[in-house]
Design brief:
Strand order of the largest sheet: 10-9-8-11-12-13-14
Structural class: alpha/beta
Shape: globular
Family: Belongs to the ribose-phosphate pyrophosphokinase family.
Strand content: 25-35%
Protein name: Ribose-phosphate pyrophosphokinase 1
Enzyme class: transferase
Subunit structure: Homodimer. The active form is probably a hexamer composed of 3 homodimers.
GO molecular function: ATP binding; kinase activity; magnesium ion binding; ribose phosphate diphosphokinase activity
Number of strands: 14
Radius of gyration: 20 Å
Number of helices: 10
Low-confidence stretches: 314-318
Helix content: 25-40%
């Protein structure tokens, strides 16, 4: 494709390379380094004048450093006369801080949106935002892609009894996500109502729906310390589920997450590669990965060609 450049930040270079390979392009030359005082320095190693530039940087790893690196890369391309700069952010940072849920709490997702806009981003491509209203924090176009096509494909290919399964949301907020998948598979859905004492600590869970003598598939947008999904798995098993799977778009897996998964009753915990999982998989055999580089690559191709990206919500071949 002419007049297009793809650059990778340092957060997830493997995914960036897969996206470039699927588009038949080479990653642009960029050097990122830190000064001795830990300031980030970025050098774009080739001309971007008049080019349609895509910068791939996921919100993972050293999140604050990687976010700053992305902002600097966007600004560097803008002042080098790129015609358009699109930030491809598979996992949007600070997405859970999307509302003012207590006195004096910040809405940090809005702050990140402002920073991206001020840096010069013309367009954002992301995946499975924690809350859809984050798109409204921007005054520039935002394409929120969904991992659903990859999830459906994995279920049909890896769960032999998928016709006798129930898709379960571990909280009420994910009801729309699970009903969409359940409708596509023509199976039932359920949800778990949870009450929290504080962040990352669930007090009580109530199952709404039937999983008795069925395969239960927990579906959520992300898992961090995995306390919720592990408690949910125990709840489903005690309610009569024959087997329990978890399918998550963003596998953050911080703190005690890996040990919790290893000790939980999951047959498998399936995540996409919006976040690198190689190190986590070495310590947990239950983790499996769905490659979503095709969805992101197709979104880039369609954006570059001025085509609709909404088609990708359910029809991308993997």
């Amino acid at each position: 494709m002419p007049n297009i450049k793809i650059f990778s930040g340092s957060s997830h270079q493997d995914l960036s390379q897969k996206i470039a390979d699927r588009l038949g392009l080479e990653l642009g030359k960029v050097v990122t380094k830190k000064f001795s005082n830990q300031e980030t320095c970025v050098e774009i190693g080739e001309s971007v004048r008049g080019e349609d530039v895509y910068i791939v940087q996921s919100g993972c790893g050293e999140i604050n450093d990687n976010l700053m690196e992305l902002l600097i890369m966007i600004k560097a391309c803008k002042i080098a006369s790129a015609s358009r700069v699109t930030a491809v952010i598979p996992r949007f940072p600070y997405a859970r801080q999307d509302k003012k849920d207590k006195s004096r709490a910040p809405i940090s997702a809005k702050l990140v949106a402002n920073m991206l806009s001020v840096a010069g981003a013309d367009h954002i491509i992301t995946m499975d935002l924690h809350a859809s209203q984050i798109q409204g924090f921007f005054d520039i176009p935002v394409d929120n892609l969904y991992a659903e096509p990859g999830v459906l494909k994995w279920i049909r290919e890896n769960i032999s009894e998928w016709r006798n399964c129930t898709i379960v949301s571990p909280d009420a907020d994910g009801a729309k996500r699970v009903t969409s998948i359940a409708d596509r598979l023509n199976v039932d859905f359920a949800l778990i109502h949870k009450e929290r004492k504080k962040a990352n600590e669930v007090d009580r869970m109530v199952l709404v729906g039937n999983v008795k003598d069925r395969v239960a598939i927990l579906v959520d947008d992300m898992a961090d310390t995995c306390g919720t999904i592990c408690h949910a798995a125990d709840k489903l098993l005690s309610a009569g589920a024959t087997r329990v799977y978890a399918i998550l778009t963003h596998g953050i897996f911080s703190g005690p997450a890996i040990s919790r998964i290893n000790n939980a009753c999951f047959e498998a915990v399936v995540v996409t590669n919006t976040i690198p999982q190689e190190e986590k998989m070495k310590h947990c055999s239950k983790i499996q990965v769905i490659d979503i580089s095709m969805i992101l690559a197709e979104a880039i191709r369609r954006t570059h060609n001025g085509e609709s990206v909404s088609y990708l919500f359910s029809h991308v071949p993997l």
